[in-house]
Amino acid sequence: MTTNTQYMQINQKVIEDLRRVSTATLHTALFKRGLRNTYIQGVSLINNQKLKMVGQAFTLRYIPAREDLDTVAAFKSPEHPQRLAVESVPEGMVLVSDCRQDASAASAGSILLTRLEVRKCAGFVSDAGIRDFNDASEMSLPIFCAKPSAPTNLTKHHAVDIQVPIGCGGVMVNPGDVLVGDGDGIIVIPQEIAQEVSEEALAMELFEDFVLEKVRAGCKVIGLYPPNSEALEEYNSQKA
Question: For domain 12-191, which architecture applies?
Answer without folding.
Answer: 3-Layer(bba) Sandwich (3.50)
